Amino acid sequence: MSELQLIATSAFGIESVVARELKWLGYGDQQVENGKVTFAGDEEAICRANIWLRTADRVLVKMGEFDALTFDELFEGTKALPWDEWLPEDAEFPVNGKSVDSKLASVPDCQAIVKKAIVEKMKQRYKRQWFEESGPLYRIEVSLLKDRATLAIDTSP
What is the rounded CA–CA span in Å between residue 33 and residue 26? Predict the structure, then answer.
């Protein structure tokens, strides 16, 4: 199993409780930030975290993180990530976003750019121009904080 960067989101102020629960589950290598705890784990860790974390809101797979000062940088950075390794050809993938203290403040525009970049990546992989999005749901999250974009797939039900 490969090692993944995972994010457990939480309400502000209880990140230390989430970190303690993760440590209890055996995931000690953590980075605690406002509203989230980042930790390393494998595919089994995704399942265990979703089942056993009582104080976390969601468990996300971190796809990548990069500086994004322009829409072009957001597009190219998103397209460079391995979406084709995670999303099947018929995947439904709505994009949710948030932006705090970033030049790219228009969340709907950021969501559209990320969606377009993922579609372009999938066009390369699957050699198709149109995707039905009739298959399983993969919720994508784009988070911009101080001009740093973090992209993730939400694994929580």
Answer: 19
Q: What is the pLDDT of residues 75-95, one digit of tens each?
A: 999 999 999 999 999 999 999
**What are the helix and strand counts (H, E) for the chain?**
4, 7
Q: What angle do CA 15, 21, 25 make, to 5 degrees?
A: 140
Q: 69 - beta bridge partners? A: none
Parse the chain into domains and list their residue ranges.
4-56, 65-154
The CATH number of 65-154 is 3.30.2130.30
Query: CA-to-CA distance for 149 and 124, rounded, in angstroms?
Result: 23
- pTM (2 d.p.): 0.94
